[in-house]
Design goal:
The protein is mostly helical and 302 residues long. The chain has twelve helices and three strands; from the N terminus they run H-H-H-H-H-H-H-H-H-E-E-E-H-H-H.
């Protein structure tokens, strides 16, 4: 039998209904097994997104990753299937993390194990090229997992102190005398406490998530994407400090009750919009700088 005949016969076998049916049943069995292993973890994750405002951005993360899969659908179909047993250690590592996380009541490890299991299955059944193509949507899913409580507390308190320090440095510029003690800002009208809810961690996590999405969709250069993602952190911190400054000014010069009520809540949304506008403005500046830099090098004499 010639080589062409062997290839033709193999193609017919691969495209036969029995092969497709076998692949379908394997896929269904794997999905059912994943559901059995992770249904409670995923349910708890969604519950936390819904009830904890600090991590409500989690709803956008899997939706965006699925959107990226849809955009890459033609590219993924064109890739050859090259199954690799090297995905098995990754799969076993994910299952091991699931066991350790459940035994130690460590939700972050148990939830992260889901991503490792997905990567292991992709490599085992589709190959490294598929996983490489899916790398960004897969990595982005990490953002949907809430930070462990011990790490979260180590971040929020320094953010509280930093926001207090920045606000107490800006308020005197508006002729408001300030005495700061830790996260307590004492002004003549009353004392302002920069509590955990005012640390800015909520806007920081949301802004970083949205900046990553914006950078991926609106920018093709990796360097600019990285700069935008990193710049979203100081932008969120500065914006939160300005919100505290605005509250202090309202307390001092207008109405303390309204400042602590409506204005305090409304200013959070206003400052977040301002943060997004700053990200957009920074992106425009970076693109302008990049374009001028390319033109400058293009006109240099050889």
């Amino acid at each position: 039998m010639s080589h062409n005949a062997e290839v033709l016969q193999l193609t017919k076998l691969t495209n036969s209904p029995s092969v497709h049916a076998g692949t379908l049943w394997k896929s269904v069995a794997i999905l059912l097994l994943l559901a059995w292993l992770y249904i409670r973890l995923v349910g708890g994750l969604v519950f936390q997104w819904w009830h904890d405002p600090n991590f409500s951005h989690g709803f956008f993360v899997p939706a965006f990753s699925l959107y990226l899969l849809w955009l890459k659908r033609d590219r993924l179909r064109s890739l050859p299937i090259a199954r690799s047993w090297l995905g098995l250690p990754i799969l076993l590592a994910g299952l091991g993390l699931l066991v350790i996380g459940n035994l130690g009541a460590e939700l972050f490890l148990a939830r992260f194990s889901f991503l490792l299991v997905i990567a292991g299955l992709v490599i085992c059944f589709l190959g490294w090229e598929h996983q490489r193509e899916l790398l960004f949507p897969w990595l982005f899913l990490i953002v949907m997992i809430p930070i462990p409580a011990i790490v979260f507390n180590q971040i929020t308190f320094p953010l509280q102190l930093l926001a207090s320090r920045l606000a107490s440095g800006i308020l005197p510029l508006a002729n408001v005398p300030v005495l700061r003690q830790g996260n307590i800002i004492q002004i003549p009208a009353m004392a302002l406490e920069v509590a955990e809810a005012c640390s800015g961690i909520r806007s920081l996590l949301s802004l970083v998530t949205l900046t990553i999405i914006y950078g991926y969709l609106m920018e093709t250069k990796l360097a600019i994407r990285l700069v935008l993602g990193l710049a979203s952190i100081p932008i969120a911190v500065l914006a939160n400090s300005l919100r505290i400054v605005g509250t202090g000014l309202m307390v001092q010069y207008w109405n303390p009750e309204k400042a602590e009520g409506f204005f305090h809540l409304f200013s959070g949304w206003l400052i977040f919009v301002v943060s997004l506008l700053l990200v957009f403005g920074l992106h425009k500046l970076l693109r302008t700088f990049w374009r001028e830099r390319v033109l400058f090098h293009a006109v240099q004499p050889i």
